[in-house]
Amino acid sequence: MGELGVDHFLFLSAALFIIGMMGVLTRRNLLIIFMCVELMTNAVNLSLVAFGWGLNSLDGQAFAVFIVAVAAAEAAVGLAIIMALSRRQRTVDVDALRSLRD
């Protein structure tokens, strides 16, 4: 069996990003969309770490740690907004929340 290279990790990262993007584009539940955005963030982290590993640099890991910190703050604020919307509208369906525009 061969050794794992950067291209293997980038392929996995691309697959995870595409799965997350398809979830954002096709789902109607706000919580599922939020989880798919987090999946896309983790795919970007994986590619940054893979590039850093391939270049023998710690820059990729440093960026990944920064992104994880920003994602934690995003998760706290995003879940608070989702909870507030679901308490007000009694649903987390995106189509039902479009009435907030008017």
List keywords for this structure.
single chain, 102 residues, mainly alpha, Helix Hairpins, 4 helices, 79% helix
Q: Which helices and strands occur, and which strands form pairs?
A:
Blueprint: H1 6-26, H2 30-54, H3 59-89, H4 94-97
Helix pairs in contact: 1-2, 2-3
Helicity level, as a percent range?
over 70%
Beta-strand level of the residues, as a percent range? under 5%
What is the 3D form? elongated
Q: Indicate the structural class.
A: mainly alpha
Structure annotation, total helices: 4
The CATH architecture can be named as Orthogonal Bundle
**Would you give the CATH topology?**
Helix Hairpins
Largest sheet: none
Please write the CATH class name. Mainly Alpha
Oligomer: single chain
The total count of strands amounts to 0
Secondary-structure element series: HHHH
| Radius of gyration, in angstroms, nearest whole number | 17 Å
Distance between the termini: 59 Å
Low-confidence stretches: none
Average pLDDT metric: 92
Would you mind describing this structure in some detail?
The protein is elongated and about 55 Å long. It has 102 residues and is mainly alpha-helical. The chain has helices at residues 6-26, 30-54, 59-89, 94-97. The N and C termini lie far apart (59 Å). It has a single domain (6-101), classed as Helix Hairpins (Orthogonal Bundle), CATH 1.10.287. α1 packs antiparallel against α2 and α2 packs antiparallel against α3. Helix content is 79%, strand content 0%. It is built from 4 helices and no strands.
